[in-house]
Amino acid sequence: MKKVIKGAVYNTETAKKICEQVTDENDYEIGAYVNKLKQLFKNKKW
């Protein structure tokens, strides 16, 4: 997936996934537990 953040283009299809974290948290705004997924990727440049 390509995404532009503050003018920089990020592409998760060409980057290597370093780690992944799934959490089950209480979201007080919607009043329910939600699963949140965080992923960290590394490309050839960085």
How would you concisely characterize the structure shown here?
The protein is an all-beta fold and 46 residues long. The chain has strands at residues 2-5, 8-11, 16-27, 32-42.
Summarize the topology.
Layout: E1 2-5, E2 8-11, E3 16-27, E4 32-42
Antiparallel strand pairs: 1-2, 3-4
Q: In terms of quaternary structure, what is this?
A: single chain
* End-to-end Cα distance: 18 Å
Radius of gyration: 14 Å
Number of β-strand runs: 4
Task: Describe the global form.
Answer: elongated
Unreliable residue stretches = none
> Structural class of the secondary structure composition?
mainly beta
Helical run tally? 0
Proportion in helices: under 10%
Strand content: over 45%
The H/E string reads EEEE
Could you please describe the fold and organization of this structure?
- The protein is built from no helices and 4 strands.
- By secondary structure, it is mainly β.
- The chain has a domain of 31 residues.
- The chain has a two-stranded antiparallel sheet with strand order 1-2. Strands 3-4 form a two-stranded antiparallel sheet.
- Strand 1 and strand 2 form a beta hairpin.
- The protein is elongated and about 40 Å long.
Summary keywords:
46 residues
